Amino acid sequence: MKTIIQKIRLLDTTAANASYNMAVDEALLQSSIESNTPVLRIYEWKNALSFGRFNNINDTLNLKMVEAKNISYARRLTGGGVLVHGGDISYSLIIPQSVVSALGVKESYRYLCSFLLNFYKKLGLDAKFAQDANLSISKSNICTASNEPYDITIDGKKIGGNAQRYSKNTLFQHGSIPLTIDTKLFEKLFLEDPKLGDINTLEKLDIFSSKDELKKLMIHSFIESFNSELIPDRFSEQELHLINELQKRKYDTYSWNIDAVHV
């Protein structure tokens, strides 16, 4: 099982805040469902926090300090714990659910994350899933403090995070590759130890390639892993309008980000 789908729309977007990036994810998901067009998006962040659909943020973050530090934040469409952003490259993948219909949820992670293992291998790193590395499995409201079976690890330590959502016969998955983490900035924002110092980054692993070089390697790894053709594209006018609406009405609002209610 190698080919995801022959042709996939590719979007490479610039660094943005949390609410914009999450609005783009949802807009592309809606657009993909309507057009039946698979999408791979590669993107960056300004300093930000994102957290899972069901996180109780008041128990995890000092929101007054987050706002005082002018750190943007947004609740994701997907589950999982809190992630710190700013020194990372992220991706979003939207494909027909039928591509992984023969697999269970956990096995679909193994399949879709194989391009990330390929990416790390090309950097000379021995990346493994946590369960394959025989690491203890643990859960936490903070992504960096948990170890799920299909979290990616290098030298026994977690690197990045990935999450999924199924919607109208469509599978949405996004994830992040940490290049660096500003631990001094972000550690103060949590009500408990986020263990940021315990996780891997490419910098800690002595990888200092530029973001542009790493993006190209991600794309090459994806093509090689799934035998897909990636077609560079840009947002449509309809998508730009939807991104703007979603950012204003949802991802910039207290009701969604804190109360997890979209009104």
Q: What do these coordinates show?
A:
The protein is an alpha/beta fold and 263 residues long. It has one domain: 2-Layer Sandwich (BirA Bifunctional Protein, domain 2), CATH 3.30.930.10. Helix content is 30%, strand content 23%. The protein has eight helices and twelve strands. It has helices at residues 18-35, 63-68, 105-112, 114-122, 183-186, 211-226, 237-251, 254-257, and strands at 7-12, 39-44, 48-51, 72-75, 83-85, 88-96, 127-129, 152-154, 157-158, 161-167, 170-178, 229-232. Helix 1 crosses helix 7 and helix 4 crosses helix 6 (211-226). The longest helix is centred in the first third of the chain and has 18 residues, at 18-35. The mean pLDDT is 91.
Average of pLDDT: 91
Please give the count of helices.
8
Strand order of the largest sheet: 10-11-6-2-1-12
| Radius of gyration using CA atoms only | 17 Å
Give the biggest beta sheet. 6 strands, mixed
Write the CATH architecture name: 2-Layer Sandwich
Derived structural class:
alpha/beta
> Would you identify the regions where 5 or more consecutive residues have pLDDT less than 50?
none
What helical percentage do the residues reach?
25-40%
Morphology call? globular
- Amount of beta strand: 15-25%
CATH superfamily: Bira Bifunctional Protein, Domain 2
- The total tally of domains equals 1
Order of helices and strands: EHEEHEEEHHEEEEEHHEHH
Q: Based on DSSP secondary structure assignment, what is the total number of beta strands?
A: 12
How many angstroms separate the termini?
41 Å
CATH topology: BirA Bifunctional Protein, domain 2
CATH class: Alpha Beta
